[in-house]
Amino acid sequence: MFSPLEQFDVFCVYTCYFFNIFDLSFFNILVPFVIIIFFFIFCYYMFLLNLYLIPTHYQYLFELSYIFIFNLIKQQVGILGYPFFPLIYVLFVFILISNLFSLIPFGIALTSHIILILWLSLSICFSIFILGLCRLGLKYLKIFIPTSPLILLPILILIEIFSYIIRAFSLAIRLSANVMAGHTLIYIVSSFVINITKIKLIFFILGVNFILAISILEFGVAFLQAYVFCVLVCIYLSDALHEAHH
Q1: Are 85 and 73 contacting, i.e. CB atoms less than 8 angstroms apart?
Q2: Predicted TM-score (pTM) above 0.90
Q3: Cβ-Cβ contacts under 8 Å for 183 (sequence gap 6 or more)
Q4: How is 168-222 classified by DSSP, letter by letter?
């Protein structure tokens, strides 16, 4: 690997064309999708297969994740957000598993690819906007009209519209940038540790401990970024379910 960013390259694993028209090639970025889907199905199949009144450690872990997301929706959205529990839960688990999968050696950092996360955030934000219009009608557009002097209202409305549109981009860039920065830092520090081992053994021991500390931090970032993503989605969802008050 010649560059810290080389680990984020997308390349074709298997080339396939359907009737020489449709490109059905398999890229390396699709590997995490397949693994995560099968892992998700397997875990929840085992969870549903072994349900007990007194939960096992495995069952208790899944129940805690349900309670965690339920309390998040209750706090940020309220009772109107309960029907959206499956959406928020799947989002949290998908981002969390994707982040954790990228920490495995030779794992692909799926959430570091901005085009994928941007597509996810754009589709979510656009769906929330349509939901707000369907539920509240034109009253939903009050989120773009702040309470201010009449002379400032036109420019403030433009600012509110711009800030609403930029939500989708900030939602994606925040996740992608944090994951990419963490992996790049680990690569740079690892390369540095390998080079200083030629100088003295004590530097190698210190470097390994530093890499271990960064790796533990990356595990925390994996959970934190999944949580932040879902919290922001819940906040945006709350705007669509409740009438705006400026």
Answers
A1: yes
A2: no
A3: 7, 8, 102, 109, 112, 218
A4: HHHHHHHHHHHHHHHHHHHHHHHHHHHHHTTT-HHHHHHHHHHHHHHHHHHHHHH
